[in-house]
Amino acid sequence: MNIDSLFSLRGRVALVSGASRGIGLAIARGFAQAGATVIGIGSSPAPAEVFTSTLFYRQCDITDRTKFRALCDFLFKEHGGLHIYLHAAGIALPHAADADAEDSFERTIDVNLKAAYRCCNTVSAYMKRGNGGSIINVTSIGSELGFPGNPGYVASKGGLRMLSKALALDLADKNIRVNNLAPGYIHTAMTDSSFRDPQRYQERLQHTMLKRWGTPEDLIGAAIFLASDASAYVTGQDIFVDGGWTAKGL
Predict the structure, then answer these.
(1) Taking the model in full, what pTM does it have?
(2) What is residue 130's predicted lDDT score, i.e. its pLDDT?
(3) Architecture of domain 3-241 in CATH?
(4) Looking at 20, 57, 124, 157, which residue is catalytic?
(5) Catalytic-role residue among 85, 126, 153, 185
């Protein structure tokens, strides 16, 4: 067994949503360094950092199924395959559980869950034309635990967690694996306000075993594992990259 090739993504085409910044951007760059041709997409006109020669960016609204399908069709024809899809696109609209928050709740479900379902269905059709592939949905520790003030986010990530398990079963006979990558508190633009608040920073820090917040780069290794042949017998699973948050008791 060649360990280098086991974790290699050479010759594979990867599509990464939410790649304009944060976790999606870091993983897109990691996939490219592992040898893949990577197309990052996001709602922003351009990514936060300059991409390399094997890492391309296209603006695309994942809630627009027609545009997303057209993009996948173009990529399949342009690159001759679609082997990896990582769904990192998502929003967080903190709100209380009251009637005034229904719009925020519905918007969060639309982007984080319904759009993810459509994207997974779309990419799986292209993976079926080849020899299968790997779908990785970025969930959250909020898919497992309750957090205050943002029921839409928790519900959407919990739904996405179970959606991946259902899709893993439905797509297994096509050699398409579906897994979840669940970050803990990662310092990104989405969490920056908590990171800069001394009290909230310490509260979140104390929940981890490793006594630090995560960085987007902390997720690259687990993502490459799930995308590569190293995880060829892994599907329907949750990999928590959370500094030990979900495993900690007292």
Answers:
(1) 0.94
(2) 86
(3) 3-Layer(aba) Sandwich (3.40)
(4) 157
(5) 153
